[in-house]
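Q: Hi! First time doing this. I have a protein sequence and I read that you can turn it into a structure. Is that right? Here it is:
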Amino acid sequence: MLDSPRKTRWRRIRLAALLLLTFLAGLTFGARAFMNTQPRSWLNIASCDDRCYRPSDVAGLIASAGIVNAPGIVPRVIRESDKCLAVPYPRGGRYLHLVFFPKRDIRDIADLTPQDQPYVMDCFALIRTVIDEQNLTDYRVYTNGPREQEVSYLHFHLVVW
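A: Yes, that's right. Below is the predicted 3D structure, encoded as structure tokens:
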């Protein structure tokens, strides 16, 4: 049996309303997730040059949204303070290799502002805590520049050999 034109029209209106509500919910969620992140360049396919997202930029944006807005969902956190968290390096070998992330979106050391100082200093305090707890003496603490980062988000490595 065929539906009447009136019934078909109401189905289309309900479908359109549902799609609009879904779009608005996604827009709201996305805006909330990325509101405390640093601006990053938009994808420009016509003339990419140095402005397109690299995989490390996408990873940094996702990491930023997770660390800044929902640090409780970051996997494998081994140490955490109110301004920094530490996770094992994903491809760590047999040596201790931890990565410390400030809970503020900072792309790299060149982007530091006075407002970032408490977050960076807290990461160094957390690094020191791990060094003291483990009685470490042979270690290295470093950060990579923007072209060397696998994730475009300021982070510090603690490596013990």
